[in-house]
C-alpha cells in the first residue's frame, strides 16, 4: 500500500499538468486563427491581382495603337466592330499585298475604307488595288456581291479628277464580266458625258473611252451609245496620233486576214459608211489626212481597190458585207 501511494501523483501536480495542457491547446488555437487570417489575406491579394491584370489587358486592348502588333492580331476579328482609321497599319499591309492574294475580307475592308477615308492619295491607291484585283474573275464576282460596283461607280462624280480616273480604270477591269455589265450599264450616260466635256486626250477621257470599249463588246448596250457616234468621230479628227487611224488599216481588207476579224472590220466600215454627216463636217473629215474617215473614204483612199477582190471571198458573210459597201 505504501508503494502504491508513492506512485500516485499528488493533487498539486495534477493541477499543474492540467494547466500546461490547457495552455498548449489555447496556443494552438491562436496559431490556427492567425494562419487562417493570413491565408485569406493572401488569397484576396491574388484575386485582386488577377482582376487588375485582366482589367489591364482590357485597357490595353482599348488602347491599341495604329500599326502595333496587337492591332494586327485583332484586325479581322474586330473589323466590323470598330471605326476604320485612316492610314493605319492594317490598311497599308493590305494595299501592299499582291492583287491575286487578296481575300474577300481584304476586299470588303478596302471598300469600307473607300467610303470612310478622307485622304485623297490613299483613296486613289485603294482604287488602284481594287482595279488590279479585278483582273481576277473570282474577285470581279466578290466585289459585285459586296456592292462594290455602286461604291466605285458613285466616285465618277467625285470632285477630284484623279479619283474619277482611277474609278474609271477600276470599272474598266470590272466590266470584263457579263453580270457586272448588267449593273454598270447605268453609268454609260455619265461616262459619255465625261468623254464629251473632258479635255481631248486627257487621262479621264481616255479612261472613259476604254471603259466604253469593254461595255460595247456585245451589242446589248449599243443603243445607249448610238447618239454619241458623232462625238467619237470628232475625236478621231481632233485627237492625237493615239486616237487616229493609221493608213495601214486598209491592209486588213485582204483575203489573207482571219475571216472573223475581216467580218468585224467590214461590219464596222459599213456602219460608218451609213453615217451621214453634214456637208461641212464631211469635207472637214476628208481634209484631215489622219482621220479614220479620210483613210477609208477620202479621195486618195485605197479601200475601193482592196474591196473588189473580196467579192470572190469563200465566206458568204464577207461577200455580203463587201456588196453592202458598194451599194
TrEMBL record:
Subcellular location: Mitochondrion outer membrane
Domain Armadillo repeat-containing: 102-244
Signal sequence, start to end: none
Principal cellular location given in the protein's record: mitochondrion
Superkingdom to which the source organism belongs: Eukaryota
GO cellular component, one term: mitochondrial outer membrane
Protein topology in the membrane: Single-pass membrane protein
Protein name: ARM10 protein
SUPFAM superfamilies assigned: ARM repeat (SSF48371)
One Pfam assignment: Arm_2
Origin organism lineage: Eukaryota, Metazoa, Chordata, Craniata, Vertebrata
Organism: Atractosteus spatula
Protein family per UniProt: Belongs to the eutherian X-chromosome-specific Armcx family.
Gene that specifies this protein: Armc10
Keywords for this protein: Membrane, Mitochondrion, Mitochondrion outer membrane, Signal-anchor, Transmembrane, Transmembrane helix
Amino acid at each position: 500500500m505504501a508503494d502504491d501511494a508513492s506512485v500516485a501523483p499528488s493533487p498539486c501536480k495534477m493541477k499543474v499538468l492540467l494547466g500546461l495542457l490547457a495552455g498548449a491547446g489555447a496556443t494552438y488555437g491562436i496559431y490556427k486563427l492567425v494562419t487562417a487570417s493570413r491565408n485569406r489575406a493572401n488569397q484576396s491579394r491574388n484575386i485582386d491581382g488577377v482582376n487588375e491584370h485582366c482589367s489591364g489587358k482590357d485597357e490595353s486592348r482599348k488602347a491599341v495603337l495604329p500599326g502595333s502588333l496587337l492591332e494586327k492580331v485583332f484586325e479581322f476579328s474586330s473589323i466590323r466592330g470598330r471605326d476604320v482609321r485612316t492610314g493605319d497599319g492594317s490598311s497599308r499591309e493590305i494595299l501592299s499585298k499582291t492583287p491575286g492574294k487578296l481575300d474577300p475580307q481584304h476586299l470588303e475592308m478596302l471598300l469600307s475604307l473607300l467610303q470612310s477615308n478622307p485622304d485623297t492619295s490613299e483613296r486613289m491607291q485603294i482604287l488602284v488595288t481594287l482595279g488590279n484585283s479585278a483582273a481576277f474573275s473570282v474577285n470581279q464576282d466578290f466585289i459585285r456581291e459586296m456592292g462594290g460596283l455602286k461604291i466605285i461607280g458613285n466616285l465618277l462624280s467625285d470632285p477630284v479628277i484623279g479619283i474619277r480616273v482611277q474609278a474609271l480604270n477600276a470599272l474598266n477591269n470590272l466590266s470584263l464580266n457579263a453580270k457586272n455589265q448588267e449593273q454598270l450599264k447605268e453609268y454609260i450616260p455619265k461616262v459619255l458625258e465625261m468623254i464629251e466635256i473632258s479635255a481631248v486626250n486627257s487621262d479621264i477621257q481616255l479612261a472613259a473611252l476604254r471603259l466604253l470599249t469593254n461595255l460595247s463588246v456585245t451589242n446589248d448596250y449599243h443603243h445607249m451609245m448610238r447618239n454619241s457616234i458623232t462625238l467619237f468621230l470628232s475625236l478621231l479628227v481632233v485627237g492625237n496620233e493615239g486616237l487616229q487611224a493609221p493608213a495601214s488599216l486598209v491592209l486588213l481588207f485582204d483575203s489573207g486576214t482571219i475571216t472573223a476579224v475581216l467580218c468585224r472590220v467590214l461590219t464596222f466600215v459599213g456602219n460608218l459608211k451609213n453615217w451621214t454627216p453634214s456637208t461641212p463636217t464631211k469635207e472637214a473629215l476628208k481634209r484631215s489626212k489622219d482621220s479614220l474617215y479620210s483613210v477609208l473614204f477620202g479621195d486618195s483612199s485605197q479601200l475601193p481597190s482592196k474591196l473588189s477582190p473580196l467579192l470572190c471571198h469563200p465566206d458568204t458573210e464577207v461577200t455580203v458585207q463587201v456588196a453592202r459597201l458598194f451599194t
